[in-house]
Amino acid sequence: xxxxxxxxxxxxxxxxxxxxxxxxxxxxxxxxxxxxxxxxxxxxxxxxxxxxxxxxxxxxxxxxxxxxxxxxxxxxxxxxxxxxxxxxxxxxxxxxxxxxxxxxxxxxxxxxxxxxxxxxxxxxxxxxxxxxxxxxxxxxxxxxxxxxxxxxxxxxxxxxxxxxxxxxxxxxxxxxxxxxxxxxxxxxxxxxxxxxxxxxxxxxxxxxxxxxxxxxxxxxxxxxxxxxxxxxxxxxxxxxxxxxxxxxxxxxxxxxxxxxxxxxxxxxxxxxxxxxxxxxxxxxxxxxxx
Length: 290
Known about the structure:
This protein is an alpha/beta fold. The protein is built from 10 helices and 9 strands.
C-alpha cells in the first residue's frame, strides 16, 4: 500500500504544501487541508478520522490535488468550497461577492437590537454582496421587510440565491448605486458594510483580498468616499425613528462619527469587536420619538 496515497498521507502532504506555499503554521495549514480533503471526498471530518487508512481512487486523488493547488495559489477557501458560514448560516459565495467575515456579525447583532422582534419594520441593506446581512436580518426578524441593494447584478444573483436557499421570503432585491434605485422609499433602519479600504492600501494586493471584487473593497484615496455618500444620502430615506449603522475600518471611527455629526445625526456611537477594535458606528436621525 502506498502510504502517501492514504487519507492520512494525502492530508499530511496537503498540510505541508499549504504551509510552505501560504506561510501558514502547521496547525492552520492542517485545518485548511482537512476542509479541502473533506470537500473533495464529499465526507465530513469524522469520516476522515475513521477512514485515515483508506486509499481514495485516482480520480479522487486528482480532485484533492486540484483543490490543494488552487489554495496554494492563494485562492480563498470560501471560493473553492463555494460557501461560507455566517451567523450560524451557510451562505453560497462566488468571486462576484465579498467573503462574509466574522467581524460583520457585530453589525448584524447591533442591527437586531434596533429592530423590535414583534413589530413590522422596513430595513435596507446597502451593498448586499452575498446577502449575508440582509438574509440574516430577514430570517431573524420575519415581520420585517428587507430590501437588499447592490450595484452588481452578479452580486444580487448570489443574494437572491441565498435568500431562496435559506428561506428569507421577506427579503427583496434592487439594483443600483446606493440610493439611486429607491425613489422616495423610507426605512426604519439602514445598514451597510460598504467599501472602506483606501485605494493604495497594500492589503488589496495580498492574501484573499487579491481574489475578491475590488469594487466592494476600495473607496477613494482615504477609504471614506462611499461611507460619506451613504451618510449624506441617508436622511432622505430614514423614517422618524430611523437608525443608520455602518461597518468601517478599525481606524475610521472618528472620521465616520464626524461625518454623522456634520450630517445632523444624533445618539452617535461606536462599537468595538471582540478584538477591541472600533468597527461599527451609527446614529439616529433627529425627530425620533424617545
